[in-house]
Design a protein that fits this description.
Elements: H1 2-15, E1 30-35, E2 38-43, H2 56-66, E3 70-74, E4 78-83, E5 90-95, H3 100-108, H4 117-127, H5 132-135, H6 152-169, E6 177-183, E7 193-203, E8 208-213, H7 217-241, H8 256-263
Antiparallel strand pairs: 1-2, 1-3, 3-4, 4-5, 6-7, 7-8
Helix pairs in contact: 1-2, 3-4
Amino acid sequence: MLAEALNKLEQMAITGHGATVVPISRDPRTAYLECLGEVKEVDLAPPPRADSPGTLADLWAVAAHLANRWEIWVDTNQVTLLHFPGLRPDASILRLCATRQHQNLTALVRGSETFTQNKLVRFLRFELGAPLETILPFRRIIWNSKGATQGTAAQNASAYGHQIEQEVTGQEPLPEVIRLDVPLWDTPCERAPYRIEIAVEYNHGDQTISLSLVPGSLEAALTAHQELMFSRLCTMAADVASEERPSPALILRGDPADARRWTS
């Protein structure tokens, strides 16, 4: 079975392109991997476990060599997010045993139509606790030509998609890059939008349009967000300092000068 899984990974490396999402099965013998931007399923028996020498470890090594990104393993007992920050794989594991997370995951994957990229990102971030450096590569902007789904990013992408579609049928040239005002964090306390650049490609053969992130645009928006948050913290700390000495929990760590000022 391992040889068959490795063969599938090799085929994924050859033919894999684009980004698709497949529904997750409850079959414990099924694992889902992303290779070169495409999600594929690989049948394994027994279910993948970190303590299975000679099987999962070998598959990790091959997946790291071919994909060099991240993989998701799902079975009836746990969800495992694999990533490769260096030569050795790292993993975040969520146990599924009649917990709130299990209920959320069940609702998330009940149907393929509800299993969106945004929901996957939120689940991995808030339920599995995956690090941001692992999640950022697949925070993709999804363009839906049939109408906007929930979320500001999807609505903006859909609106731009319709605009581009109209330009294709006319005489106006397609824009090389469009810009979306996308909120990086969808939380009640922070919904600040940031300008993210999206590259536009039009395939004349099959009459399709694809949008992809311009390299560095998401990182720049993330940096701007962090700078804004730090600025707000500094303002809050200054307000507190004008009234009373803050507790150690309020000491800022971003600037050593601030720490010296608070602790002196």
